[in-house]
Write a structure and sequence with these properties.
186 residues; alpha+beta; VC0467-like; 10-stranded mixed beta sheet; globular
Length: 186
Amino acid sequence: MKRNENLGAGSFLVAQPFMSDPYFKRSVVLLCDHHPDGTFGFILNKSVRMNINELLEDFPDFESEVFYGGPVSTDTIHFIHNVGDLLEDSQKVSKGVFWGGDFNRLKFLIDAEMIKPSNIRFFVGYAGWSAGQLKQELKSGSWILSESDTNYIFNPKKENLWSNVLQDKGNTYSVIAQVPDYHVNN
């Protein structure tokens, strides 16, 4: 099967195994928008170990874990979902994946039990790159570009996401997926 691994919305960025940046170490980032003037996305596999109800007042009772989306604007909450046009003003990222939408409508749909935790992911902050920055990071080998998979995006088990995405790429990446996590002692 030929993989579409073009840099753009819907792509995964997988951190190289020896990336030491604590924000992105062993992370998988879903790119939601990519233009010549910049790129942004969300880290999929870094939980903040909180439920959305713990962060937002006046939000329906909803058992949905919140993830650390990235180091930019960590005072903001974002969400991706798979309910498409059911949520007005959402933007398509890739097949079956949408970003944002009308927040009051989201609360209504959750109250009406039309959106379940398996349909949505919440993030604190986001990952962002200025014009040309991400292409330079890819060129220097900081990231491995991969095709995204909605099964990974909305799967509640994120502990092995980094190695699973690499394993799925096959070949040399299957070997990289086996590299143990290392800790640098200062």
